[in-house]
Structures are given as structure tokens and as C-alpha cells.
Input
Amino acid sequence: MLFPVTYRVNAAGHMEVGGCDLVKLAREHGTPLYVYDEATVRQRASEYVAAMGSAGQVLYSAKAFASPRFLRVIAEEGLGLDVVSAGELYLAQKSGATGDRIHFLGNNKSHEDLEAAYRAGATIVVDGAYEFELLREIVPEGKRTPVMLRLSPGVKPDTHSHISTGQLDSKFGFSIESGAAFKAIAEALQHPRLEVVGLHSHLGSQILALGAYMQAMEIMLDLLVLLRDELHFEPRKLGAGGGLGIAYTRDDDPPTPRQFVETIRHALETGCARRDLKVPGLVVEPGRSIAGPAGMAVYTVGSIKDIPEVRRYVAVDGGMGDNIRPKLYGARYEAFLASNPDHAPDRMVTIAGKYCESTDILITDIEMPELKTGDIIAMPAAGAYCLAMSSNYNGIPRPEVLMVGDGQAHVMRRRETLDDLIAAEVF
Output
């Protein structure tokens, strides 16, 4: 699934999403422009919920992309949220989310983060012993706050090292392998301010092979046997994280949300049966696999530079300020001429951004039709971790963001202005 579910080439020969012509949207709203297809968001979210059924809970990972209008659509499809800062929690609350449907994660939560999470009634996912003392200060005497403990199962999935989090050498979680997890759970169960409702793990992101989840589940369940036998504790919830990958190029063939959930559910249920364990409620936290396929990035071609027998650079009006992923960990994308996406490619080009960095390259060596200044190009699978990690580098305002559906385009986030760049400055 490279394109949003509503994608088609319309009668004008243009790329269309949600009934909206991308070339027309670019002319009306300017570029760079990010366009989210509401139908894709709903379809991906509902597939997770249907696959989970009554076996547990699906949370949307807000760090992938968070905007109040987007988060309201997520909530309407029955998903809760996981957040990693007081800022994401604030956005969640502005979207109407309540604390009982929010999990608060993070490896170095501040006093302010934890206080906000407690006041909101969120489930706090404790990531280190440091939080035990902070929560002793924050939670009033005689009260308890629901927590899960993040564990590191010691599994390294097949993904880029920069987005792998479940291995022993990780800043996240209590290691099962080293014995730190058992000790932390024992301490948490004796903590006067905590109600330990579950255990959590997360392996990483953009994972295309599901075997790592099955391996991690076996390790987690072996720990549950030890906890039952030695601490008489059986968690009500067991978090398997998210991280399901998506198609960024036509060569990618990721599992579906249903396959992801059903694989983990099967590993949990059969593993518990073999160990005579009660089956805890399963928690999964997709982010990229919901937001990613729904988003399209739209740019206008500017300068074109030919270096004979070396390379042709086609520069666009966005780049690393709105999509740092190619620079950060070598992410690869496809791109299409929005006015004629079926045009056969006729030469190799490199699509460069406008930022003052030699590494500001969106796509290196991609076959495209002949491009000229003023052409509109569109990149699919741009809905996750692009805007979420965007910046004002070089003093460039962030782009406008639309939600489209049934032929209508609604502004989710207006284009920033130059005045926005100095809004926090003190003169």
C-alpha cells in the first residue's frame, strides 16, 4: 500500500486523493503542502480495532503525527493514545481525549511531565527507577496511580539501528536479560503510590518481519511465569508496542495491521496456554502504520542543475525542514509528477531540498519524467515522522497541512508565517 486508499488518476490525468486534485491543491494552498486522506486514516485504524476485538486495547502513537483534527478521527475509530511529553498530552486533551484512554511513555520524564500525566488520569509507563521517587513526591499519600513498567526484552529487530529500541544496549526500559526488570517490578509492587496494572515493551520502528515480536513475546511470558511463581503477580495488561513498517517504495511489502495484531495475539494466547498463565489484555501502539500511508507531501520544482556525466539535481521548495528522515536514517521515498503520474520516466535525477546543507537530499537517484521549473511533484507515504520532526531551520516556516475527503479539503494546520518565527523571541 504505497498510496492512500482513495488515490486515483483523475480525468485530467492528475493525481487525486480524497476526491481532491493534488495539482489544484498546490495552486490553491501553495507548497510545500502535506495532504492527509481521512479515509485511509479510518481504514487503517479500524483494521487494528477489528483485529484486536475484545482481546485488548489499541493506542495510536501520537509522536508519529499529532494534530487535534487528526486525533479526533483516531478517537472516533475507537483508539486510545500514547504520548511521550506534556506537550503531546496537551494536544491529546485539546482533541478531547480523556486520561483513561491515554498512556504516557518516555525515558526521562520530568517532574512536570509526570505531574501532568497524574492529573490527567493517564496510565504512566515507568521507564526507569528515577520515576519511582518522582511519583512518590507527585502522588498524594493514600492515593495510587496506574502504571505499567517498560521492559527491554533483549530482541533486536531487522530495522535501522537508529530506530531499534528493544535490545539490551538501549536507553529505554528495564532489561529482562540483566535481571533489572524483575527487580524493578518487585520494587514497584511495594511502592505505596503505584498500582502496577501491566508491563510494556517496544522493539523499534519500521519493522517488516513479525518474527521479532513472537520472539519478544516468548521472553516476556517466561518472565511472567517467574513473576507469578516468586512475586504472586500477574499483570492485567501486556504491551507489545507498535513499530509495524509501511511501504515507502514499490518494492516494500509490509504485513497488514490485521496480520500484525493476529500474529502477536496468537503468540500471547498460545504462549500463555503452554505456561498455564492467565491471558492479560494485549496493548499495541501503532503510529507510522496509520499516519504514514495517509499522508502525501507535495512540492514545487525550482532550480535544476546538470553536472554532465555526474548528476542532475532537481530542487524543490521543501526538504529537511519538513522531512528529516532521509538525512536522519537513510529513508527512501518514491516521487511522481502530480500532473502526469503515469508518464514513463526518462532520466535519473536526485531530488534536493532548499535548505543550506549539502545533505539536504530527499531522494537520491530516482527515475522521473522530464521535469521543469514549476512542476508539482508528490511523495507518498509521508504522513509519519515528517511533520512530527519538522523544524524552522534556515528560518523557513513549516508547511500547511490538509485533511481531505469526499472532494473537500480542510486545513488542519495553517502555513506558518514569518511572524510565527519570532513569536517566542524576547526583544
Notes: The two ends are 49 Å apart (CA to CA). Residues 50 and 258 are 8 Å apart (CA to CA). DSSP finds twelve helices and 21 strands in the chain.
